[in-house]
Amino acid sequence: MESHLVGLLLGTEDDWPTAFESLVRSLGPVTDTHGTEHRIATERVTIEPFSLRDRPRHSLVIDRLAYWYYVPREWLKKVSLMDGVYLLNNPFTFQSMEKHSAYCAMIRLGLKIPETVLVPYKNPVDNARWAYTAAKYNRPFDLRKIAADLGYPLYMKPFDGGGWRGVSRVDDPDMLMRAYDDSGEMLMHLQQSKPYDVFARSLSIGPETMVMRFRPELPMHERYAVDHSFLSPQSGEECVTINRLVNAFFGWEFNSCEMLVAFGDGERPDEVMPIDYANACPDVAVTSLHYYFPWAIKSLVKWTAYCLVTGRRSRIDLTVQGFFDIADRDDLGYDEKLEAYRRLADERFEAERYFDWCDSRLRHFDAVALEWFSGADFDRLLLDTVRSTYPAHEHERFVAHFRGLLALWRADEARRLG
Ligand SMILES: Nc1ncnc2c1ncn2[C@@H]1O[C@H](COP(=O)(O)OP(=O)(O)OP(=O)(O)O)[C@@H](O)[C@H]1O
Ligand SMILES: [Mg+2]
């Protein structure tokens, strides 16, 4: 018998961790292909001083905190480098969670990234050397001309993005100057806006990917639409490939990706344009994902179990050359490159082996999970989450709203399982 402890590094969220902990308990022991039994337990990680030589008790940690809290961030780096603890997202590419590196990498690989320009800070940098350096080396530039070349409307947004902070849509030169004045100490991109028909947001957990129709203009609880046919099969696959590619490139296994999709006609194919794909602490709240929440939690449990039981190791070195070799081939068109990227990404995620393994080792898990998501514990979790998320006068409406969407998932899932 082997035991594995999963650490959950959490901030304010309680909904998905509770669901995850319950489902891991319901899963029970998993027998590997050699007949050895593996027991998986979970524990919420607490924050305290640590010696750099301490040995952690955890085999795998799911992190939701390191993107803003540096004590656990440094702990993650330590346990990853020294103790072989499995982390879903490579802590050393956290800096690439600034959008900028991700844009650069994906442009290098030939993806359809809207034209993007980085402009120097509006306000002086707080450093005694700035005035001298800027006077000597900062070239004056014409912001209006850069914007005119990109074309209006355009987006101005921080190079490191996240949570819509500092994002503005700019329609004319006046708005441009105002947005730049407001940017202050933030470093900004100007980005061409592309006409599109639908906004796709995908969430990947290991080799599992869900592409969802997203409506960023609506309130949070309505942003994810339940729609199984909003993309053509080709552009749906393209979205999956792009999300896996980004993840394989940076060493991420729990990340979401946003793409604008413009529909083609008889002659032109659909176009998928990624605009944001470095969200290594993706939103998995039940009040956002609703219908898709069970899929997300089940995928987290399955991928976690797979990694622990098969002894998969996390990869912290960036091995990007394989992707660049594909990018540099003149004999391949865009679609063929995507296929080659996909093969390479799927190899890194052991996709085929993982799905076979789930079929043979976790045979009863779908039914167990459906039962849990149909039971009183999950309903209580939903109620508690609604109560802590919305003001009292909205509780009734939102409880009904989310119960309805989850009932729809249960009906679909029961049909799928036959
Ligand atoms: N180039 C673009 N073309 C069209 N719309 C865009 C573009 N860039 C950003 N947007 C819109 O602005 C929103 C926020 O931009 P973006 O996703 O890049 O920033 P963010 O700070 O990561 O936001 P979030 O955390 O909400 O995803 C997008 O969801 C989209 O609606
Ligand atoms: Mg975004």
Topology:
Layout: E1 2-9, H1 15-27, E2 30-31, E3 37-44, E4 60-63, H2 70-83, E5 86-87, H3 99-108, E6 116-119, H4 130-137, H5 143-150, E7 154-158, E8 168-170, H6 173-183, E9 188-192, E10 198-205, E11 208-214, H7 220-223, E12 224-225, H8 233-250, E13 254-262, E14 271-279, H9 286-289, H10 293-310, H11 321-327, H12 334-348, H13 351-361, H14 365-373, H15 376-389, H16 395-417
Parallel strand pairs: 1-3, 1-4, 4-5
Antiparallel strand pairs: 2-3, 6-9, 7-8, 7-9, 10-11, 10-13, 11-12, 13-14
The chain binds adenosine-5'-triphosphate and magnesium ion (MG).
Please give a structural write-up.
- By secondary structure, the chain is an alpha+beta fold.
- The chain has 3 domains: 2-95, Rossmann fold; 96-112 and 195-279 and 313-349, D-amino Acid Aminotransferase, Chain A, domain 1 (2-Layer Sandwich); 115-192, Dna Ligase, domain 1.
- Helices cover 45% and strands 18% of the residues.
- The chain has 16 helices and 14 strands.
- Strand 2 and strand 3 form a beta hairpin.
- The longest helix is centred in the C-terminal third of the chain and has 23 residues, at 395-417.
- The two termini are 33 Å apart.
- Bound molecules: adenosine-5'-triphosphate and magnesium ion (MG).
- Magnesium ion is lined by residues 258, 276.
